[in-house]
Structures are given as C-alpha cells and as structure tokens.
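agent> Task received from the user: take the single chain below, predict its 3D structure, and emit structure tokens. No templates, no multimer pairing.
agent> Plan: (1) validate residues, (2) run structure prediction, (3) serialize to tokens, (4) report one or two observations.
agent> Step 1 OK, no nonstandard residues flagged.
tool_call: predict_structure(input=
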Amino acid sequence: MSQASIAVPRPVPVRIPLREILPWAVFVGILAVVVLYFVSTEEGATALFSGGYVHEFVHDGRHLLAFPCH
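)
tool_result: status=success, residues=70
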C-alpha cells in the first residue's frame, strides 16, 4: 500500500498598513486611559462628578485591580 501526498496550500499573511491601524490604536489607548481614570482615581482628590455614584459603580473593579479605596 502506498501513501499519496496531497499538496496543501499555505496561508498567506495579510499585511495591514500602519495608516489603517494607527487611528484604532489611538482610540483604544484613549479609551483605556479614561477607564483607568474612572477605576483608579474618581471620587478622590480629582473627582469630576459629585456624589458617590461612580465610586460605587466601579468599586468591585477597584478591588479586582488592587486599587485601594477605603
């Protein structure tokens, strides 16, 4: 019994130009900084909103990310 070999085509990687990735990378970076601000420092010395609503909303996330809040 002989084995027949089948030619399997190799996948060709697609090149994505930097001009297409850069706006999305900037958007995700800004979004990450905003989320990090709300989780880490909101309701502290630099609070943008009065009341404790933001603090209570992200309270468990603070502890999950090891940010002390009380």
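agent> Step 4: summary for the user.
Residues 33-70 form one domain.
agent> Done.
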